Each structure stands twice: as C-alpha cells, then as structure tokens.
User: Which sequence fits this backbone?
C-alpha cells in the first residue's frame, strides 16, 4: 500500500507539480537524509522525457557546522559557483523541484545573523533566477518528504521513530489528496476545482480591504490594491503557457496586500520554521503597511533579522485564505513546516508579492510598483494567523461590507 | 569498539591524510550513501581548526540515470559550474578529501564511451587543479567507507548485509593499521618507517630497468629514467612544506617508468574498477613504452576507451612495488577497488607520472618531458599485476643484475 501511495505521490509531483514533458531540464534540491526518495523521483522525471536532471544535495548537519565554524568573511561573499549555477538554470529554463524535509531543530544554537547574512548572499547570487520564479517565468514546485527527525517533532507521543514516519507519510498522502482515489493526479484536478470556484467569487466581490479579528487579539485592516487578482490551485508559466503546481499540497486562495496600507495588530497562530529555526508566539504591529513593532516569545532575534532584510521585508506581499475546516487543518496535526501549516491556516507573507496577483505590475519597477502597492523584497516568508474564531469582513469598491470569513471558515 | 576504531580512523584521515591545521580550507567528495560518515569527518576537521569545509555529494544511482538519459550534447560540454568550483579551490589552496565507497555494479549497462566523454570534460574543467594535485602543490587524500553494496561484493558468501559491512570495516581498520595499537596516527607513523627503509635501498641501487616475469605470462622490461626517485609513505606539499597522505592505506613504494621504454607483455592479476565499471582479465603488450595491443575478458570496450584518451594514456606513469606478504594482501580479501587492491599488489599506472618521482621534470613541459621519459596524460589509472610467483630483476647503472622481487616479495 505504501509503495503504491508513494508512486502516486511521485506521479503527482512529476505530472502536476512540474508538469514534465519531453525535452525538459530539471534541477532538484534535497537533503541527503531523503536520498532514497530522490532516486525514484529522478527516474520518473527521466521516464517522462527529461533530457537533463541535476540534483543538488545539502546536508543540514553539515550546514549547521558551517554556520558555527566557517570564517566570518564567507558570510559576506557571493559564491561564484552558485552564481554560475543559477545563471545556467535561468538561461536553460530548467524546472525547479524542492524536496523538503524540515527539521525544526536543525539550526539550534546557530546565530540568526549568520543565517540572514547567508540568505542575503544567496539572494544576490540568484537575483534574476528568483525574479523569474516569482514572475511565473519558470516552473517550480515544493513537496515534502519525511525524516525520523521531522516525524518525531510532529508526533512526539510516538516512541517508535519508524511508526512516526509512517504516520507522517499518511498525513502527507492525505493532505495532498493522494488518498482521495486511485489516481492522485485526477484527485488533484478535482480538488483544485473547489479552489477555482472560490477565486471566481472573491474576484467578483472587487474588494478594497479585509478586516481581520479574532480572540488572540488580532485586529488588522489589510488594503487590497485596485486590480488585484485572487489566485490559487496552481500557476501557469507565462513563457511556455504550461501549468505547474508551486505547492504540493495547496488549499489556499491568495492575492497581494497593499504594501502601503496595512494597519493594526496581528498575532501568529502557529510556529514558523525559517531556515532551520523556529519563530513562535509572535505579534506584529503595522502602520501604513509597515511593521513598526514586532516581538516573538521564541526566535525573537531571528524575527528581527528577517524584518530588517530590506524595506519590503517589513511589508506584506501576500494575503492567503484557508478555511479552518480544510482537510489538513482538520487533521489537527501541527507539521511545524510552512508548506503544510500554511495550507491549514489563513496566512500572510512578509516580502515580495507575486506578479500574477497584480497584472498591472508586469514590466513595472521601483517607484511605479510602490505606487501600485506591489511589495518588493529579497524575502517571501509566509506566517500563519488563522484560528477557529477568525472573522474577516471585506469592504467592496462600492462601500458594501460583506462577511468573507466567519468562525474560521468561508462565509459564502 | 567500532565507535573507537571509527574515531581513530577519522583521526588518521584528518591528522595524517590531510594534516589539518588552523586556517585550512577543505573540500570533500562523497556519495550520499555514506553521509552518516561524512558528518563526523567534517566535525573533526572543524575541530582541528579549518575555517571552511565544503562537501560535494554525488549519488551513484542518479549518476547512472544521467549516463543513461541525459542528452548527448551534455557529454561534450564543459560545465561552467565545475570550472568555477575548481578555480576557487585552486586559488584558495583548499585541501581535497575523497571519501570513496566503490560500487562495482554502479554503472552496469552504461556506455563506456559516455563515461570516458564525461571524464574528458571533467579533466578539461579541472586542468590547472589536477596539475597542482599531481605536482604536490595541493594536499589531498583518499579514504574508503563501506556500503552494503560494496560489502556484498567483497563478502558474497555472507548473507546478512550488516554483517558484511562489519567485516569490511574490520578489513579497512586492519589494512590502515588502525588496529596495530591504540593510537592510529602513531601506528601509521611506525608503519611508514618500513616503507622509508625500502626507499633508501631502492634509491641506492640506481636502477635503469626492471624485468617482470610470472606464471600468468607476464614478461616485461620497464625502463626507469635517469634521476628517478622512489617514493612512498606519504607526500609533502611543496608550497606549504606540510606532509599529507594521498592514500589511506599505503603499502607501496613507487617511481615512474620510462614513457619511451617499456617492452613486453603484462597480465592483470586483479579486476580494475574504473568509473563504476569492471575491467578484468586483461593483457597489455607494449613496445617502446606504448601499448600496442590490449584485450580484456571483461570490460574490453572500457579498457580501449581508456587507452584512447590521449597518447599518454597508452604509456606508464607509475611503477609500484608491493610485497605479496603485505598485510592487505595476506588478508586474502579482494576489495574490488583500487585503493585497497593496489596496496595488496605490485601495480603500474597508465597515464600521468608524479612530478616528485623525477625532480628534473619540475618546470618542464612538452618535448622536454618526453625526452626525460616523464609521461603526460589526462588520466592516471592504477592496475594490479602482482602474483605470489612474481619475479623482478633489476639492472643497475653499472650493469649489475640484482633480484628486487622473488616469489612475490622483496628479495632484500
């Protein structure tokens, strides 16, 4: 049974996530801890017609050692090797697959300053590549693979690590609709139809702002730029006109917030795992779109490093709605990793907005984007704010106030 | 016990293999199948004072897929990413560690032409780096780590794969003198003294040629260039004047053969694993230093590809003496990998000679090297020819004929 489910899960990643066709090139990121899963994924990608697959393995245990012991100058240096690599992929339109296996304890004891310095250098080495990614000019997908370390965090009450891994696999298969029927791709296609239906309703509302409130203390008004579009269920590569699924799973519908108009206070509802460190129990206060105050019970230094990346890191780039009654949320499992937890909860992203959520942003830059309310940043980091009692009231262009979320779920 | 032996083995690699000191940079090659061993090696290297360690993981299962399915043009293209990498290491004098875990079946079914094309492109991307390596201007070391796949080949009669791995570890610890006493580095230092003693004797002989004969049919006269030096027991980085051990284990004493003067026939005595493929049961006929005929019972195509790499690939670059009574040889284990098998058997290398075996070669190039009998090639591939009845007669400059090897062992 597991073998069949894994095969269908890989099928979903290859056919819907990356949408592999004859002649494609692919590059894959994965930690060595999941190398046994990388092998069949690569085999399936070649079977689908790829002519070049490159796998870049990381090793989180060694990455931590590097953070602790590499000389300081390396954290202020752009890697020419990385630059050459990104340039190659950008030129050859290679599709990107991130096989993620989060470990919430991976970077324990590492300086958040070094992590952010490293992230900044990485950004500088991949600027054009990242722009292609954010602008749907490159096909990419993220999918998760369990490790014992991750499974132990998700199921702390299960003593047997192998049993915990099995449970985590079940949760992943379930959350990605692999278990809905025998054909994972057909299940996926059916599922995204429900998301498309929501997009149509939300786009027809023509909203100008959303007002979030809940019992955690969240009281936030998020402006939505004129011409914003709600998106979800997948993306389309605007160069090849081929679909791809950036996130497996996906339960969200999302658009961009107005980078100049977010006001109030918002509380996190789930921990955020960022670059191997946990940020939890945090509160952001925003004025005119900018975070003016931020505190976290855990990971406060990392949160502040994150916000200080650049001007756009203090502003929202994404507003996403996920009902509390979504399947992943109903499972009651805290995955301690964004890919799953963001699909169990309404969330925002700090940082860069997606071009496809504001068609008017295409080809614009600098001051023009700022005027449009389109946020620009090196980062794009989602954080979860949904609760069972979340209420969201929408204001329409015609002034009408309508309920978008009631008691944590869509009101329509 | 295993933990302690492993710790001592790692100590040997870090302190004698690479001779790590404060401020060193290191790059490590390893297959993902041995990632659990890479982690403690990296930790030990940082503890010894390194300021940068980079690990480049390969995945032999995926490499095989790439050979089978990547488009042809990729095998005729130099990778700019690899070039950038080698340039960086060459400039920063990074020390190189190869953690090898051979799998004699890794490249089953792969075209030897593609493997050689790939090797040629790799050589072109690392030309200057390789030259530094061959000229003792860079410190480097190779050490072996077991996998289940390798252990099963070495101990086919052992059904339990974990048991086979344990046996292979024992053979590795034993062959590298880790078990000779509590301190692996002290054991190593004592062992290399016996090699130094042999060097002194051989260098004092001032030989002009060696005549090999055995019952396999080998009957070969190998010229030794004037001014050749016998080496062994380790190398010295001529830039930093620091020692390093290129091979762990090492039982050989070696020099170079005259690239223009090797005549006769030589038979292989052990299989040669080259780039994941086995070449076995082969015979080379040489005239005036050049292989004029070559056939292999297994891997004939690969052998011919190898010999056709360039002119120097058809000539000898190294002549190495290992007594049949060496500890690795006496273990009776066929490791099916050069690092161990070459240290259980007299061998030659096809391809490039080592600069330190002919001091007069330093700074010379092209025609000058040719005249000196110093071989130049993209490749350097050892192959085993030692047998229990191997006889080697040496001719001294003064014309005297003396026995170097009798019945497979040193005659002195």
Assistant:
């Amino acid at each position: 049974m597991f073998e069949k489910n894994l095969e269908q899960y890989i099928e979903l990643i290859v056919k819907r996530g990356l949408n592999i066709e004859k002649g494609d090139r692919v590059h894959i990121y994965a930690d060595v801890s999941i190398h046994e899963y990388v092998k069949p994924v690569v085999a399936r990608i070649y079977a689908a017609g790829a002519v070049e697959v490159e796998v870049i393995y990381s090793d989180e245990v060694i990455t931590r050692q590097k953070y602790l012991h590499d000389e300081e100058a390396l954290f202020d240096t752009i890697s020419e090797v990385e630059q050459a690599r990104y340039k190659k992929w950008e030129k050859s339109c290679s599709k990107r697959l991130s096989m993620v296996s989060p470990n919430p304890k991976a970077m324990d004891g590492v300086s958040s300053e070094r992590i952010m310095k490293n992230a900044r250098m990485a950004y500088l080495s991949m600027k054009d590549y990242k722009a292609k990614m954010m602008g749907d000019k490159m096909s990419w997908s993220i999918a998760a693979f369990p490790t014992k370390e991750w499974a132990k965090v998700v199921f702390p009450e299960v003593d047997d690590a192998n049993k915990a891994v099995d449970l985590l696999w079940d949760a992943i298969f379930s959350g990605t609709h692999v278990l809905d029927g025998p054909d994972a791709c057909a299940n996926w296609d059916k599922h995204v139809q429900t998301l498309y239906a929501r997009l149509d309703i939300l786009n027809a509302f023509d909203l100008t702002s959303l007002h979030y409130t809940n019992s955690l203390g969240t009281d936030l008004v998020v402006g939505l730029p004129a011409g914003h579009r709600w998106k979800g269920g997948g993306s389309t590569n605007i160069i090849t006109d081929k679909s791809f699924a950036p996130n497996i799973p996906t339960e969200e519908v999302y658009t961009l917030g107005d980078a100049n108009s977010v006001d109030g206070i918002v509380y996190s509802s789930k921990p955020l795992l960022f670059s191997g460190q946990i940020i939890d129990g945090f509160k952001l206060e925003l004025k005119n779109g900018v975070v003016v105050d931020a505190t976290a019970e855990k990971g406060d230094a990392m949160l502040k490093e994150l916000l200080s990346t650049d001007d756009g890191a203090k502003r929202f780039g994404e507003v996403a709605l996920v009902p509390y009654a979504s399947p992943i949320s109903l499972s009651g499992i805290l995955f301690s990793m964004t890919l799953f937890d963001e699909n169990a909860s309404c969330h925002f992203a700090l940082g860069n907005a997606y071009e496809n959520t504001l068609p008017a942003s295409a080809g614009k830059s600098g001051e023009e984007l700022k005027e449009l309310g389109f946020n620009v940043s090196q980062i794009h980091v989602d954080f979860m704010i949904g609760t069972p009692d979340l209420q969201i009231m929408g204001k329409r262009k015609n002034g009408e106030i309508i309920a978008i979320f009631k008691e944590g779920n869509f009101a329509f």
User: Anything to note?
Assistant: The first helix of chain A runs from residue 2 to 17. The CA atoms of residues 72 and 114 of chain A lie 9 Å apart.
